[in-house]
Amino acid sequence: MGLYPAIADLARWRNVLKQQKIANAQRWLNILETCPDPVSLVHEDYDNFLRALETTLQATDTFDIAYRLGQILYPVIFGYADWDRWLVYLRQTLHTSRLLKKKNEEARLLEQIGDLLYHKGNLEDAEKSYQNASQSYKEVDNRTGYYRTLAMLASLKDIQGKVEEGIQLCQTALALAEQSRDELALANANLNLSNIYRRTREWDKALESAQSAYSIYSRLGLSTFLTKASITLIAIWAESGEWGKIDQLSRELMGVLNSSGDVHNLSQLKNNLGILAFSQGNYNMAEAAWQEALQLHSQIQEPTELAGIYNNLGMVYTQLEEWETAEEMLLKAVTAYRRFGDIFNWANSLDNLADLYEARSQTAEFQHTLQEAIAGLQVLKETPHAVELLNYMNQRLTSAGPSPSN
């Protein structure tokens, strides 16, 4: 008979322990919601916040705490690139939201899952997640969320080579946000549109959209979004030669990102500073910046960004006449861009590879590489920036004369 009280005691103490863990999670949530500097707090106590979140994810009756805690943590930790772990958390929270029929929360979680899949290079699944989020936002009449997912779908279309479709989606999001006077949605759509224009080399349009986003984020006091807009502005200035504007802003950002542990944005900043150095002809400085970005990306493994860094390193090693390393980097970029279907940048990396072969007087390889890029780029021949690259490569091929085999 002595066995039964022991079991009862065990059950009671388990329940007490559970309630203590929940109370602790609630305490961490309260601290976060009232903290003037949540970024520093999370950076210092990340493991404690994760334990609190994991405790509340285990039951439906603590969903509200889990969701609120996750939503505060998510934008702060995104830069840590701890994406696989957070996919598990988000999917677990999504499952509970569906059990409880919480449609607005479901939509937001689907959107965030889409964000992580997008940055991990899983574009097909990211698109499905965004589309489901968009539909859910429409059902609950959450206009800000709906406009935001339209803008993210626009970015996906752009990477997939459907540039005009991407621009149209962004412009639709902008028009809807303006009609409803939704400033945050307006800023998000402008920032996504800016990055599309940046990829298509339309610098004036890219700058105008990025400045609009920066201005709104600044007015709303949204530091996390302001960082993203700042990095986009630096990227545009680096590509278009506005070197004088970069120094102060990049110094301020470097300090913020280093102290917050934001590996993701720091790697993007290093990449942009490398572009600036390369455009000034400072190849050693560019190589150092891009190697730092590459080291940071070893923690992230974001395929789209990684491909760009490989391409840039290939270009700088060509200039430094480190031929084998240059070829290795450019072939990695070509393979990565081909894998997730970014045809323009795939062709652009092949063009850079052709530069290397031309510099080494490897005429057959030079011509073959250009021919491959030209053939593959035909699917984008209606797109202005693709037409410009096509014309350039065709001129190079014509100037090179007949193939050595002819």
Structure description:
- The protein is an all-alpha fold.
- It has 20 helices and no strands.
- Helix 6 packs antiparallel against helix 7, helix 9 packs antiparallel against helix 10 and helix 10 packs parallel to helix 12.
- The longest helix has 32 residues.
Summarize, please.
With 406 residues, the chain is mainly α.
The largest sheet, given as strand count, sense and whether it forms a barrel, is: none
Q: Over the alpha carbons, how many angstroms does the gyration radius reach?
A: 24 Å
Helix-strand string = HHHHHHHHHHHHHHHHHHHH
Number of strands: 0
What do the pLDDT scores average to?
90
Shape: elongated
Percent helix: over 70%
Instruction: Please report which band the strand proportion falls in: under 5%, 5-15%, 15-25%, 25-35%, 35-45% or over 45%.
Output: under 5%
Supply the helix-strand structural class.
Answer: mainly alpha
Termini gap: 98 Å
What is the count of DSSP helices, taking H or I runs of 4+ residues?
A: 20
Uncertain spans: none
Question: What topology does this entry show?
Answer:
Layout: H1 3-34, H2 38-44, H3 46-56, H4 63-77, H5 83-99, H6 103-119, H7 123-139, H8 143-159, H9 163-179, H10 183-199, H11 203-220, H12 223-240, H13 246-260, H14 263-279, H15 283-297, H16 303-319, H17 323-339, H18 343-359, H19 363-377, H20 384-399
Helix pairs in contact: 1-3, 1-4, 3-4, 4-5, 5-6, 6-7, 6-8, 7-8, 8-9, 8-10, 9-10, 10-11, 10-12, 11-12, 12-13, 12-14, 13-14, 14-15, 14-16, 15-16, 16-17, 16-18, 17-18, 18-19, 19-20
